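Model it.
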Amino acid sequence: MSLSKNWDLQIDPSVLKTLRRMPRRKAEIILEVVRLLPVNPYFGDIRKIKGGYDIWRRRVGSYRIFYKIKIIEKIVLVFNIEIRSSGTY
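Modeled.
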């Protein structure tokens, strides 16, 4: 199976800061999922966020990766990572 990139990936600097603060193993797992987003941003345990224009979330254990899909530019913009709580959504 070829893992060629179909989309460009952009990561907000605040996401990198969040990854540095979390446990190393969890950060590695989340980063691996983020690296796969440009291959197919619609694959995995994802949901479209209601009220958001092309804003999606992907579930990775108790963490949520929030990203925006810019269809015309073919860009996936990861803008937030949060641990799941009652106030996440």
